[in-house]
Amino acid sequence: VGAECDLFMQFRFKTHSGIILIVGGEIDALSSFQMLKDAQKDNRFDPVAVVSSTIGETSAAKQVQHQYEWFSGAKKIIVAMDNDEAGKRATEAIVEVLPKGRVHVMNLRYKDPNEYLMNGKANEFISDFWAAKPYAPEGVKSASESFDEIEEELLKPRITLPPFMHKMQEMCGGGLIQGRIANIIADTSVGKSTFVNRMVYHWIFHSPEVPTIVSLEATAGQYMLEMLTIHLQKNLRWVMTDVEIIEYLKSEEGQRLKEELCFKEDGSPRFYLIDDRTGDIKDTEKQVEKLFKQYGSKMFVFDVLTNLLEGSSEQHIDDHMHFQRNMVKHGITFVNVLHTRKPPNSADGKPRKVTEYDAKNSGTFVQSAAYNIVMNRDKLAEDDTVKNTTEVDLPKCRGGKTGSAGKWYFDFITATCHDLDDYMQENPEKFSGINF
Q1: Which residues neighbour 424 within 8 Å (Cβ) at sequence distance 6 or greater?
Q2: Sequence-separated (6 or more) residues with CB below 8 Å from residue 88
Q3: How far apart are alpha carbons 145 and 148 in whole angstroms?
Q4: What is the torsional sign of CA 53, 58, 61, 66?
Q5: 155, 254, 147, 163: which is closest to 205 by C-alpha?
Q6: What is the model's pLDDT at position 139?
Q7: Residue 318 to residues 218, 248, 333, 377: CA-CA distances in angstroms?
Q8: From CA 336, how far away is CA 368, in angstroms rounded?
Q9: The overall pTM is greater than 0.85
């Protein structure tokens, strides 16, 4: 569609069907016109006008813009740029300069129209041509397209939780829905990592997706030692010296545990770990994209996201949560561990329970999530049992129930977590005279 083509268009398409097809190049235009002409065997109808840029896809929008008056005479305009990134960008640019409400986009199953012709797939080209859908900006879908996605939404897998979290799992309708953002919110030193680590341990064996942990507090060695402790249900550093642990890991039994904990049956990794404290949030986002695109990881646990964004401006935090929301569209799940501001004291002089609104740095965290899990613990309680019990609330749970999600008890010796009600029923002697 250039000045040198004006006479050609006016002559060849002085009368046409009212439909114009815009393709990427001259060869594609000739191929498209040939397939469309062959499909109209009796030639009873005016042809479809097929045009292309004379200066390449990237500048096509400028030429289309110059021919706006001619395009405005069409009742339907179909855009069929090459099926690649450059073609998609060209499509977006061309649509912007065409008459609104008449533009359709053809979904090419091959790279370009010429490839249809070369592969002997003219019938498929004609089918795809007539199946072109009205253009909608990225992210905007028609009611019919949205309706067709109900099945996809209902078939999204659930990410189950460890058995001691069964009350919260029931409130979520069977687990976290894949492709959501979940926040775990608690004051410093409450012990949230204890529970997050057990969630991760459960996920590396039972999640439908391979998790990646962005470890910002524990080093890779510290993190793996914690995973091993959970795996063995034994607080290794409490029952063995550091030298004994090293010798144990070198033994045949230790190597067997390594295989069991680190690799699936097919030899692929059970999970990945990002252990980098030198980069900024943008570096971490690049690593997340790489792990998703190259290794297929679709679950990321930021432990602790607050640390990664410490000192960032409100805008930087909002930008990162925008990044997470965009990645969620690809079915990725984010679990963010968040610190809270120091809560004020209540009337009796004791710190009040933290809420989701106490999350440190930005309210964007809370607003972006589908699930907000809040933990509180009286870490200064005189009784060890009370001190090792964490109260859990679920103030936000899209598609589920909100409210109290129970209490979790941590057994220090066995390094195991339990639902408090279940544990009290099984061990009544340990709770005699204790008031929760």
Answers
A1: 430, 431
A2: 81
A3: 5
A4: negative
A5: 163
A6: 67
A7: 26, 46, 18, 29
A8: 11
A9: no
